[in-house]
Amino acid sequence: MMMFGRKKKQGSEETADAAPESVAPQPAGSGTEPAAGDPAGTTAEPSPAGAPHEGPRDSADVEDLGSLVDLGAVHARPAPGMELRLELDPKTNDVSGLQMGNDDGAVQVQVFAAPRSSGIWEEIRGEISEMIAGNGGTVEEAEGPFGPELRTRLAQSGPQGRTVFAPAVFAGVDGPRWFLRAVYSGAPAVDESARATFDECVRSIVVTRGDEPRAPREMLPLTMPEGATKGPVELDEDGTPAGDDLQPFERGPEITEVR
Hints:
Blueprint lengths: L1 E2 L16 H4 L33 E2 L10 E2 L3 E3 L6 E6 L6 E7 L3 E9 L7 H14 L3 E7 L2 E11 L5 E13 L2 E9 L5 H12 L2 E2 L47 E2 L3
């Protein structure tokens, strides 16, 4: 796991903060059917589900990426004091998702290919709801900053065999031939004021779909930023690493940069 900043403090007596990747159904499929490919990022197509113009945005709508961190299919900007963690697939060691968080909580972000003609968030919401309810959790659908979202409590095993519930909010944005899923945990999942900063981080995201043929729900490739190093590395105000003593990136349990 590649990390930028401080680790989040989690857990309480009867409520545990969930690691989003361990509890959410993964929309990424095996790619059994090829998707028709056409250039993305060359035409600003409208979002099938009306993704908000202020973000997340498609790369075709953005002229200057500014200080956003380049993660391949995603450019993002964590808020000051937040860490940005890249999650690695244990089997392939490929980057499978990113988290932006601080001591209050985190938001996990993953991006996937989607059909040109329609969004997939409505279908995925149903699948997530069914999975969580089937595992003993609770689900409420509500209107959030990015449209319909799921406010959930995830049933988990706690101390002495007790069941504890981890709050998590699942939000989705259908973009032009891509889908972004954001999963909020910790304080942002239960407190609107605490969530506001995390929403701004999600809005900062720019998605580059690419023109490769991809099956719907296939995860878009994320990459590690240039100059990533083990251990804490301070970033300048413009988001670039401070100093010139960066070491070549080495894969490991976690890599850290501090913003």
